[in-house]
Amino acid sequence: MAPGGLRNGAGWRAVMVHNRRMQWFRPELADLPSYVAGKRPRNADSVKLSSNEVPFPPTPAVAAALVAAVDHGGALNRYPDMSCAQLTAALAAYEDWDPAGIVVGNGSTALIEKFLQAVVTPGGEVVSPWRSFEAYPIATIAAGGRFIGVPLRADGTHDLEGMAAALTENTRAILLCSPNNPTGTTIPHAEVADFLARVPARIPVLLDEAYIHFAPAVGESQASRAVVQNGKELARHYPNLVVARTFSKAFALAGLRLGYLLTSAAMAEPLRRIATPFGVNRLAQVAGQAALTEAPTVLERAAQLARARDELAAQLAEADWHTPTSYANFLWIDAAELARHGVTAARFEDACMDAGVLVRVLGEGVRISVAEPEGSARVLAAVRALE
Ligand SMILES: Cc1ncc(COP(=O)(O)O)c(C=O)c1O
Q1: How crowded is the C-beta side of 124, counted as CA atoms within 13 Å?
Q2: Does ligand 1 lie within 6 Å of residue 246's CB atom?
Q3: Are strands 171-177 and 205-208 parallel, antiparallel or unpaired?
Q4: Residue 84, C-beta contacts closer than 8 angstroms, at least 6 positions apart
Q5: What is the pLDDT of residues 166-192, one digit of tens each?
Q6: Ligand 1 atom having least distance to the Cα of 132
Q7: pTM strictly above 0.85
Q8: How does 274-283 read in b/e, with b if 16+ C-beta sit within 10 Å?
Q9: Reduced to 3 states, what is the DSSP secondary structure of residue 226?
């Protein structure tokens, strides 16, 4: 039988054409997993809970700044400030971080790609939790590296022991994701600190905090330290640590593509050198600065979603569907939980689609973003329909 399950002549021809075209590319690209976007809705009023977006419009200052930027001609015929100087200064003030250690990019995914391109040598290993953000294996392979996915523990948390054991002479980078996509779990501050102390200083570590605003007090209180790391505090001590943050989630600017790294000046400088020239567009820079002036509103909205998340988790638990404790804006139903109910991830997704809500199948599990209240109500309806 032909590769890909194709039996007929047309199928064979398609495979040969495909194989010939793949010769244009580096051989490892043949194994590249695709980034699978969420499914399209069956009807127009479906609620989209498949991409971890927030349901809110931009905050008022962002909308006003964008309108003003465009109203005055927007200088859109000109390239934007390549160094993102004003936004970097605003981030430095907001994050209390040395501007020399800030790298702004066209979304944090692009920054993760650039980071890996910068540090991975051909065939070099990137140790990462798995399952985690889908972009990690793709970005690793695209950077010429080997993705070493260390399975999460049964409760959906990082297996830092396992990750430490996976380090070799050939390790070029480590990825950490907290809260982790798709499980929502965090890493206690003390555990990350212990782990970093064991990592050889020659290995750069990227800690992805895309969802940190949905975690309690961003790891700063005594109680929250027990459950969530304070990446910034750690990055002040470890120059090989890079904290990645984004405007796409709590800041509600996914459509504009804006993210940033907080790290040491020594790490940031080469990363800035390989940045895509003018990669961060003018409107994104304007919007990012405006969004920072309304951070309290952003954090209040994030807290509101965190409450909605906890409520949905409790309601699902009442219906006998259990999810790992999430500190992000989504919940994860893992393979074991689906199996306990005798349903596949595809069947669960289907029931949700019938109830008018889009969720995301990732491997054997299902991730549900927490956004519009109507979406959560429909998820509960879908779960009841599965009984
Ligand atoms: C863990 C994680 N990191 C980064 C991102 C991407 O953020 P951005 O929109 O800034 O590229 C996502 C988006 O889903 C994510 O889940």
Answers
A1: 19
A2: yes
A3: parallel
A4: 104, 280, 285
A5: 999 999 999 999 999 999 999 999 999
A6: 1
A7: yes
A8: ebeeebbbbb
A9: coil
